[in-house]
Specification:
Layout: E1 12-16, H1 43-56, E2 60-64, H2 74-84, E3 87-92, H3 99-108, E4 112-117, H4 122-129, H5 134-146, E5 152-157, H6 165-174, E6 179-184, H7 189-193, H8 195-198, H9 202-219, E7 224-228, E8 248-251, E9 257-258, H10 279-285, H11 287-290, H12 308-311, H13 316-323, H14 339-348, H15 352-355, H16 364-369
Parallel strand pairs: 1-2, 1-8, 2-3, 3-4, 4-5, 5-6, 6-7
Antiparallel strand pairs: 8-9
Helix pairs in contact: 1-2, 2-3
Bound molecules: FE2/S2 (inorganic) cluster.
FE2/S2 (inorganic) cluster binds at residues 188, 240-241, 260, 262-263, 315-317.
């Protein structure tokens, strides 16, 4: 059997339509050098990507960014995704949503919207995004509800808002959310730049989890609460992206196809562009998607570990950022020879001289100044 016959289709197509965004979040997951990749695919290119990925077997399509509402053709792309039979999801800050656009998105067949907040208070929300957006987000929440979408709210949790967790849950209740994702910050891209300032202490995390559990019991089926644990406080790594080249196919604004948001920074790996190669060839045959697929490539101690099928050795990008070797065991694992790096980071979260440094906010000017790709 040839290699390509053993590879299943991607389940998710993540269409990162643009890196443009009115917000400047200090934990943004867009690459820190995004300003060097500003050229965007055309509408025609995206329509072709949608068709090719669907023909390959993708069934879910996420439109994200940057802020996907910055693209005037979003409704056209959503309509095509709907026609092709995808379940479509808009991942948005809500900025740019108005009566006209929410109706047009509904008419185009958009299935699902995820709205992000940075905090429960105007002050912290606006500080973390370096914009005055709190009130606009509340309006966006009302618009989403007005079209009978389930209200799916997301809030990235970190040291600067973790003490507000109860208020964040109350805000979700007030906005009549059906689902709240409390996504503890993961340290990639801009969040990695601000790691010491954003990492909560273990005590903060335990308290936040306990409060979330109390609210879960109180709310019952009225609102679903998801608490995503940060892997720096785990002893086993996550199966990143549910396995490299296994479920997710990300296409960046300039058309580079990646197995995750940040893989472009990994040295020595070629990732094709959808302008030059069709999606099936990229997924099945490109070197970039095959390098870390499955478990055959694993180094020790993963290779002989009984848990290797659970985590596939963890995250390639995290391994690279911390050890400069994308093929190493993710240092989150306490069997990794580099686990000490994680313990050091936890220790740094208790040192005020590090945690109180000013934040670096995401923005094109800052992005151009940065000389390292992570
Ligand atoms: Fe790239 Fe985990 S984020 S493999």
């Amino acid at each position: 059997m040839g290699m390509s016959e053993a590879i299943g289709p991607p389940f998710w197509l993540l269409a990162e339509l643009t890196y443009r965004c009115p917000l400047h979040c200090a934990f943004c997951y867009n690459p820190v050098d995004f300003a060097r990749h500003e050229e965007e695919l055309s509408t025609e290119d995206w329509l072709r990507v949608l068709r090719e990925a669907r023909a390959l077997g993708a069934v879910q399509c996420g439109f994200s960014g940057g802020e996907p509402l910055q693209r005037d053709d979003l409704e056209v792309l959503v309509a095509e995704a709907h026609r092709l039979g995808y379940y479509s999801n808009l991942i948005t800050s809500g900025i740019g949503l108005n009566e006209r656009r929410i109706r047009a998105l509904k008419d185009a067949g958009l299935d699902h919207i995820q709205l992000s907040f940075q905090d429960s208070t105007r002050e912290v929300n606006d500080f973390l995004s370096s914009t005055r957006t709190f009130d606009l987000k509340r309006k966006a929440a009302a618009l989403i509800k007005s079209q009978n979408y389930p209200m799916v709210m997301n809030c990235v949790i970190h040291r600067l808002n973790i003490e507000h967790i109860e208020r964040i849950i109350e805000l979700a209740v007030e906005l009549d959310a059906d689902y709240l994702e409390l996504a503890n910050v993961q340290f990639y891209a801009w969040a990695q730049r601000n790691r010491a300032q954003l990492m909560p202490t273990h005590e903060q995390l335990q308290r936040a989890e306990a409060i979330t559990q109390q609210w879960r019991e109180r709310l019952g089926t009225r609102m679903k609460l998801l608490f995503v644990v940060p892997d720096y406080y785990e002893s086993r790594p996550k199966k990143c992206m549910n396995g490299w080249g296994n479920v997710f196919l990300t296409v960046t604004p300039d058309g580079t196809a990646l197995p995750c948001h940040t893989a472009r920074m990994l040295p020595g790996l070629a990732f094709p562009n959808v302008r030059e190669m069709n999606v099936a060839d990229i997924w099945l045959r490109s070197e970039g998607f095959n390098r870390y697929r499955g478990t055959g490539w694993l180094p020790e101690p993963c290779r002989s570990c009984p848990e290797k099928e659970k985590d596939h050795g963890g995250c390639r990008c995290q391994a690279y950022m911390l050890t400069q070797d994308a093929g190493a065991t993710d240092p989150v694992c306490d069997k990794s020879a580099h686990h000490e790096l994680i313990l050091q980071a936890r220790e740094q979260a208790t040192q005020p001289k590090l945690t109180e440094q000013p934040l670096i906010f995401r923005g094109p000017a800052e992005s151009r100044r940065i000389d390292q790709p992570f």
